[in-house]
Write a structure and sequence with these properties.
The protein has 10 helices and 11 strands. It is α+β, with helices and mostly antiparallel strands.
């Protein structure tokens, strides 16, 4: 569910431009500022709390991490998940499926499910027996068992947002959930529980956002006294669901029997995972800033001038480009051309000054 459009963060736009714009062909350079900001936020949220340099295998079954499935290296018919670091190192040239995040998973790279070993962690068991898999690892999603992106998407699913179930962690089209469109767009929707998971865990229906019940079972049991039968469709719970979920002895035993204790475990939700990622990114940015400042302090005056001029030229070129883009507008090939011309002009001007000073 997309909320109100947030104010564009020019700093992240600059980072995105620096990373991509000079390597793009003109035909590839059309993207709105909102899309650039959204992509940056999604990358921060999913990857921020995961390690890009070290295989996560030694950490055991990680509570939550970014995962991928390699369709090139898995043995026929097998399903396997690999961590972020292995996707970037061991499988950088492979056909990959991005799995977003999964809970309680141990990296499969290099084990008996794979055709090749792991370059980052040599000593691995042949199988991770506690891992669970679904059709996502084959690049398929929802009850309709379709891929995403879907090159042959049927008309009824076009522009249909996909939502992840917090229990099975599969992704579903709003249409396939059999939830009315008005319900899909409600602002108080928190997390989703899909049709199949509701049928397996009926006691979760007590926490349906549509349930008007305010009376609880008792002072000790804080579960709503009555529930709403959702029928053959998925349902939403409130954003406060994990806090509201009763953990009295009886309710906790029900959660335990259904292997749902993760719902009351700290750090399981995507919100908490994203917070950890953001904290990690901010710490890394702060460390980088300190390293840059230390480097600048150790340069002679001429070196400091050169770096200062380079930063000024880059900022000036980006400002020229963004100045030609209206709020919420599209960064087109023409805008990219402005950026390139301005940067090249500043570089040439600097070269001329050096020759005059020599």
């Amino acid at each position: 569910m997309s909320g109100e459009q947030e104010k564009i963060n020019s700093k992240k736009i600059v980072e995105q431009v620096i990373q991509n714009v000079m390597t793009q062909n003109d035909d590839e350079a059309s993207m709105t500022l909102e899309e650039m900001e959204k992509q940056q936020k999604e990358a921060d949220a999913v990857l921020g709390a995961s390690d890009a340099d070290n295989c996560s295998y030694s950490k055991g079954y990680v509570a939550r991490q970014a995962l991928y499935s390699c369709l090139t290296c898995t043995i026929d018919g097998e399903m396997a998940g690999i961590c972020l670091a292995c996707s970037l190192t061991c499988h950088k040239d492979c056909e990959m499926v991005e799995l977003y995040t999964k809970r309680n998973f141990r990296c499969d790279c290099g084990n008996s499910k794979m055709k090749r070993g792991c370059d980052l962690e040599k000593n691995k068991e042949p199988i991770n027996s506690n891992n669970t898999y679904n059709h996502n690892y084959k690049g398929l999603y929802c009850t309709c068992d379709r891929p995403y992106p879907d090159p042959d998407c049927p008309p009824e699913l076009e522009d249909d947002e996909m939502i992840q179930c917090i229990i099975c962690e599969d992704w579903y089209h709003g249409t396939c959930l059999k939830i009315e469109k008005s319900m899909l767009e409600k602002e108080d929707n928190g997390e989703l529980i899909c049709i199949e998971c509701i049928s397996k865990h009926e006691h979760l229906q007590y926490y349906n956002t549509l349930n008007p019940e305010t009376e609880t079972v008792s002072e000790k049991c804080l579960r709503p006294k009555t529930k709403i039968d959702v029928g053959n469709c998925g349902m939403f719970v409130k954003e406060s669901f994990r806090v509201d979920l009763c953990s009295c002895d009886l309710c906790k035993s029900v959660l335990n029997e259904d292997s749902l204790l993760f719902l009351i475990a700290q750090g399981d939700s995507m919100e908490e995972y994203e917070d950890i990622g953001q904290e990690k990114i901010e710490a890394e940015n702060s460390q980088t800033d300190n390293q840059i400042n230390s480097l600048l302090n150790n340069l002679d005056s001429r070196g400091q001038q050169e770096i200062a001029y380079g930063i000024h030229s880059l900022k000036s070129a980006i400002s020229s480009m963004l100045g030609a883009v209206e709020d919420g507008g599209e960064v087109t090939a023409d805008h990219v051309a402005i950026f390139k011309r301005k940067l090249e002009a500043d570089i040439e001007e600097r070269k001329k000054r050096r020759r005059l000073d020599a």
